[in-house]
Amino acid sequence: QVQLVESGGGLVQAGGSLRLACAASGGTFSLYAMGWFRQAPGKEREFVASITRTGTSTLYTESVKGRFTISRDNAKNTVYLQMNSLKPEDTAVYYCAARLGSSYYVSVYEYNYWGQGTQVTVSS
Predict the structure, then answer these.
(1) Alpha-carbon distance 29 to 73, whole Å?
(2) Residue 110 to residues 3, 20, 107, 124: CA-CA distances in angstroms?
(3) Nearest-angstrom CA–CA distance, 6 and 32
(4) pLDDT at 41 over 90
(5) Phi, psi angles (nearest 5°) of residue 109
(6) Which helix (H) or strand (E) holds 6?
(7) In this structure, are strands 46-51 and 58-60 parallel, antiparallel, or unpaired?
(8) Residue 7: in which H helix or E strand, if any?
């Protein structure tokens, strides 16, 4: 059973940056593909970024390409989401997710484990 705990959310002005972290425990972290998702009020949870278990491949949703970077440190059992040039439309609760596998994954249904989320609010 894998436990995930997100941190790093907060309130930031448009154009600013935040770095989210997700610490994993209870499993062999290097075997898990990791993903970041977000959910705004009244909307469905949506894919943001994913990274393979080795960290060699990443995938992003179109709206964050060039602004967000997903990375991982397998020695620290942690995955990160560096968010730059933030926009008000990035406001949401951000969740990290994990699943066993060698690829990256984009659907909420493909992930087995979820964190509780961290709020990101971008003011205009």
Answers:
(1) 9
(2) 17, 22, 5, 34
(3) 16
(4) yes
(5) -75, -10
(6) strand 3-7
(7) antiparallel
(8) strand 3-7
Q: So what's the pLDDT on residue 21?
A: 98
Query: What are the start-end ranges of the E strands in 8-123?
Result: 10-13, 18-25, 32-39, 46-51, 58-60, 68-73, 78-83, 92-100, 113-114, 118-123
For the stretch 63-121, pLDDT in tens is 999 999 999 999 999 999 999 999 999 999 999 999 999 999 999 999 999 999 999 99
Mean pLDDT of 18-42: 97
d(CA 98, CA 94): 14
Distance CA 119, CA 60 (A): 20
In this predicted structure, what is the pLDDT of residue 1?
Answer: 85
Instruction: Name the amino acid, one letter, at 44.
Output: E
SS3 102: coil
